[in-house]
UniProtKB/TrEMBL annotation:
Protein name: Thymidylate kinase
Pfam families in the cross-refs: Thymidylate_kin
PROSITE patterns membership: THYMIDYLATE_KINASE (PS01331)
UniProt similarity note: Belongs to the thymidylate kinase family.
CDD domains named among the record's database cross-references: TMPK
Gene source species: Cudoniella acicularis
């Protein structure tokens, strides 16, 4: 992805000065259409004159990512805390690269990020693994400018092709994941400010159009310098 010969979006000299690139994350249940919408958004951004790179988590190509892949493919078992920390470490492996590319003027479109990390772990109903505990290892990671949440009920996700191939693709798990995602949007912390909800039950084209209408404005504002600097994931306030 990082070599010119493999890069589907080679660098184009911007027609206007770019303060920095944007950091956009696409989240949702399994089979909600994340990969499709990441590709469509990248295509739209590039056609509109923005430099862009697509990434996804987990990154299964690194040594840590290969361990995660074995777990997701049901080839190995692991303690809930241990696998969660591996997922977080996998994101930290890419943190400096994300900052560097954004500073160069690339917009990063990311398929899953720490939001999935914490809600999927918390959805396991392990009393020793709360949402707050699951979020803590990711404090300090680059904070997205916006998070696109593809909202889809678990029953509809189950009807889509390829469902059930990986460890977490079970209806009860997906229902809990969706509940936790929607809870983040109403929690009042930074995630609720960053997340935008889109109906993933609509056609892929309609979803893409709706995402473009919102995210194109965000990217334009970020590149023009009228947005905040790239932030970091912060601590949640302590409960009282």
């Amino acid at each position: 992805m990082d070599t010119a010969s493999k890069d589907p979006f080679p660098w184009k000299e911007p027609t206007k000065p770019v303060a920095r690139g944007a950091f956009i994350v696409v989240e949702g249940l399994d089979r909600a259409g994340k990969t499709t919408q990441v590709q469509k958004l990248c295509n739209n951004l590039y056609a509109d004159g923005h430099n862009v790179k697509a990434i996804r988590f987990p990154d299964r190509t690194s040594p840590i990512g290969k361990m995660i892949d074995g777990y997701l493919q049901r080839k190995t078992e692991m303690d809930d805390h241990a696998i969660h920390l591996l997922f977080s470490a996998n994101r930290w492996e890419k943190a400096a690269w994300i900052k560097e590319q954004i500073s160069k003027g690339y917009t990063i479109v990311c398929d899953r990020y720490y939001y999935s990390g914490m809600v999927y772990s918390a959805a396991k109903h392990n009393p020793a693994l709360s949402l707050e505990w699951a979020r803590t290892p990711d404090v300090g990671l680059p904070r997205p400018d916006r998070v696109v949440f593809l909202n889809l009920d678990a029953e509809e996700a189950e009807r889509r092709g390829g469902y059930g191939q990986e460890k977490y693709e079970k209806r009860e798990m997906q229902e809990r994941v969706r509940e936790l995602f929607l809870g983040l949007m109403s929690k009042g912390e930074e995630e609720s400010k960053d997340m935008m909800l889109f109906d993933a039950g609509d056609s892929a084209e309609n979803v893409s159009t709706a995402i473009w209408a919102e995210i194109s404005k965000v990217v334009g504002s970020v590149e023009a310098g009228s947005w905040r600097d790239l932030g970091s994931v912060g601590h949640w306030p302590e409960k009282r």
